[in-house]
Amino acid sequence: MKLSALQAGFNLDHIALESPSPNELSKFYKKFIMMEHVKKKNKEIICEGQNRKVILIKGKKNKLSYAGFSCRNKKNLEQFKNFIISNNVPFSKFINNHLEKGAFSIIDPDRNIISFGIRKKTKIVFKNKFCLPLQHLTFASRDVERFEHFYCEMLGFKTTDRVIHKNRSLATSFLTSNHEHHTIACFKSNKIGIDHYSYEVSQWENIKILCDYFSQQNIKIIWGPGRHGPGNNLFIFIEDLDKNWLEFSAELEIIHDRKVNEWPQSEKTLNLWGKGILRS
Ligand SMILES: [Fe+2]
Q1: In angstroms, what is the span from residue 196 Cα to ligand 1's centroid?
Q2: How remote is the CA of residue 42 from the centroid of ligand 1, in Å?
Q3: Considering the domain 5-118 in this protein, what is its CATH number?
Q4: How many C-beta neighbours within 10 Å does residue 55 have?
Q5: CA of residue 199 to ligand 1 center, whole Å
Q6: Could you give the CA distance from residue 116 to residue 40 in angstroms, rounded to a whole number?
Q7: Which residue from 52, 185, 247, 253 has the highest number of Cβ atoms inside 10 Å of its Cβ?
């Protein structure tokens, strides 16, 4: 039996970023993103909080090393593997130790490494219970059509919204692997790799709490508060020490079966309330 990524139900479990100064960056994540547990293992610095894990590795600034998605059980994982094998998806030799045994990794058309598996159980008891789980990962690509085709047709993510240039080419594609509006997205850009990633804080009140918290810590909000058109989520963005974009989002649309919405590439699509940051 085969299951698409949507049918298997995947959540973003962790992301691994390269950095010229992973030690310094881990201090930022510990202090400001409330990653209570930071440890070095092999060549990685693993930063963890309740339902969030960011791994830092010595390397190039703003480069995604890999990302991991987890589903609820082994059966779903195996049936998803059958789905992608039947689509001849290229596997990577990369072994992801942050997922249970049986995980596997693929390489997408932009050479991003994405792992799929079962979430690893942790014995860590986190004291800080502020709800801040990792939620989505967005990419930058020169070819959003190819990206969408790969994730939708080959992996079985579901396209929820598209942002279209005047010449009908794709500016952005939003896709999901669960009930949330998007777990990945891709922006047309001259860059290839990560655009930003997000933490879902569930409600507006928590965006307000975070704005006050970041202000007290002298961390500038670089975009927002605003509301995205696609996904209808409230958002703020900050930058980490490497100028990676971190989004904190709330009220992201929950998807029940609906058709794909199309949006024009405009400031208002990116931010219904005001200034938009257009990537292309
Ligand atoms: Fe986002």
Answers
A1: 7
A2: 31
A3: 3.10.180.10
A4: 24
A5: 9
A6: 23
A7: 185
Tokens 């918290």, residue?
A: 213
Q: Count other Cβ atoms within 10 Å, centred on residue 184.
A: 26
Name the DSSP class of 153: I
State the distance from the centre of ligand 1 to the C-alpha of 268, rounded, in angstroms: 15
Decide whether 5-118 matches 134-270 in CATH topology. Answer: yes
The pLDDT tens digits along the chain (280 residues) read: 999 999 999 999 999 999 999 999 999 999 999 999 999 999 999 999 999 999 999 999 999 999 999 999 999 999 999 999 999 999 999 999 999 999 999 999 999 999 999 999 988 999 888 889 999 999 999 999 999 999 999 999 999 999 999 999 999 999 999 999 999 999 999 999 999 999 999 999 999 999 999 999 999 999 999 999 999 999 999 999 999 999 999 999 999 889 999 999 999 999 999 888 888 7
Give the architecture (CATH level 2) of 134-270. Answer: Roll (3.10)
Protein residues placing their CB within 5 Å of the ion ligand 1: 198, 247
